[in-house]
Design brief:
It contains 18 helices and 12 strands. The chain is of the alpha/beta class and 435 residues long. It folds into 2 domains: 302 residues, TIM Barrel; 105 residues, no CATH class. It has an 8-stranded parallel beta sheet with strand order 1-10-9-6-5-4-3-2. Strands 7-8 form a two-stranded antiparallel ribbon. The protein starts with 10 loop residues before the first strand and ends with a helix. The structure holds zinc ion. Zinc ion (ZN) binds next to α14.
Length: 435
């Protein structure tokens, strides 16, 4: 097998490896890398092999946290020793499984399961957390040496605050290992906040959702700590980061320090086909998610068609055309009420009027549309990715572009979330200015 050198882009988004995210039709560029969960390794081994043969990265998720959650639910995972047992069993299984290092180019390595579960339960990290991280990093380095240069082992770091992230970054920097930062928990935070703490505290007067800010502080903390002990920026993978506006914000922070950053997220697929509230991504006026029922509402009420120029929306519209006239008649007859997500589900009144936006009662159509919406969302993220890469090469231009995006995002998004993105970006800028 010939391995081509991968392009060293400053930023890449990895979708989950699926037949429909890999083979997206003629003329559609593939991604630099794909994420593969360990549970799909057997089913998708051939596709993974094809990706790697083409010189793409294949990032193997260890699935360890899922195992830990199951054990924590079924029995009681209530101390660090039990968590370490789970980890040890996983490592033995993994190292015995020869296909694993052969299939992947990047592997999510040894993980401090105990810290991860403590944070999920809303608890503090215990005093042993840094010591365990140090052990995981040593293990990862030894494992990486055995696997050779073709595979890179990432050390997952579970932290919730800037101070924790900074300390963890220092430990990882001493080992010089690649860092995986899980951001799913932070991005799903339901907390609201009126301050952000990095190495300074910034407060404001009106609370905003904390999710973007929680993700931003741990990213900045890890990068600062790492740079201090390693003398260079880390190779960083942000796990579970697919929020369209957060990609440029995070990339601008990482690229300015010389870090190579990759991210992955299941969200473009979930938003397109599994969440009851379907969301479609847009690049203009700013990277955003639009709820499908709101798109349908604007189409019915104001005659504003979706009209996306991407090949995936185009193909669905040609195969299953929208019928806004019929939808509007129905809407007027029903008292012109605002639409809700249920109106576009398979039992809803507009299910067959906007095939691209709804859940069809026809299984073939439903599957085809779900895949098309996924690929639409990925098409948008790919355009954002392209802009980041181009601008990262010209000093100062990425930052200026992101600044404009965040302003436009603030005008178009839900006001609280728009404000939260602005505050996260402000924190990144202050961090960059401090050098
Ligand atoms: Zn589209």
């Amino acid at each position: 097998m010939t391995i081509k050198a991968r392009d060293s882009h400053a930023f890449s988004f990895y979708p989950n490896l699926k037949p429909y995210t890999f083979n997206r039709g003629p003329g559609n560029r593939r991604f630099d890398g794909y994420l593969l969960s360990r549970e799909y390794l057997a089913d998708l081994a051939a596709l993974g092999h094809e990706a790697v043969t083409e010189g793409r990265a294949l990032f193997l998720d260890n699935g360890l946290l899922d195992d830990g959650r199951k054990i924590g639910r079924d029995a009681v995972l209530d101390d660090a020793t039990q968590a370490a047992d789970v980890l040890t069993r996983w490592l033995r299984a993994t190292e015995a499984e020869e296909r694993l290092p052969l299939a992947a180019t990047e592997v999510l390595g040894p993980e401090d399961l105990w810290s991860a579960l403590q944070l999920e339960r809303g608890l503090e990290l215990d005093e042993g957390a840094l010591e365990r991280l140090d052990a995981q990093a040593s293990w990862a380095r030894a494992w990486n040496d055995r696997l050779g240069a073709r595979v890179q082992v990432f050390v997952p770091v579970h932290v919730a605050t800037y101070a924790q992230a900074y300390d963890a970054g220092r430990v990882l920097g001493r080992h010089g290992v690649a860092v995986a930062l899980p951001l799913t928990r932070a991005l799903q935070s339901r907390r609201w906040t009126e301050s952000i703490t990095t190495d300074e505290v910034t407060t404001w007067t009106k609370v905003v959702p904390a999710a973007y800010l929680e993700a931003t502080v741990v990213l900045l903390g890890v990068m600062s700590g790492y740079r201090e002990t390693a003398g260079r920026a880390p190779r960083l993978h942000a796990l579970g980061l697919g929020t369209p506006i957060m990609l440029p914000i995070v990339a601008a922070a990482a690229c300015a320090t010389g870090s190579v950053i990759t991210t992955d997220s299941m969200a473009p697929i979930n938003d397109a086909m599994t969440e009851p509230t379907t969301s479609l991504y847009v690049e203009t006026p700013a990277p955003l998610k639009y709820k499908a029922f709101k798109i349908a509402q604007a189409w019915i009420e104001k005659g504003m068609p979706w009209g996306c120029p991407c090949p995936f929306c185009d193909a669905i519209e040609a195969r299953y055309p929208s019928n806004p006239v019929r939808a509007r008649e129905k809407w007027l007859a029903g008292g012109a009420k605002p639409l809700s997500k249920d109106d576009l589900l398979s039992a809803g009144p507009y299910s067959e009027d906007f095939p691209l936006l709804s859940w069809s009662r026809n299984a073939t159509q439903h599957a085809a549309v779900g895949i098309a919406r996924t690929n639409h969302n990925l098409w948008v993220l790919q355009r954002v990715e392209q802009h980041i890469r181009q601008l990262a090469m010209v000093e100062g231009s990425l930052r200026a572009w992101v600044d404009g995006l965040v302003t436009r995002h603030g005008q178009a998004a839900d006001p609280s979330w728009g404000r939260a993105a602005q505050l996260a970006w402000d924190a990144v800028q202050r961090w960059l200015d401090r050098g």
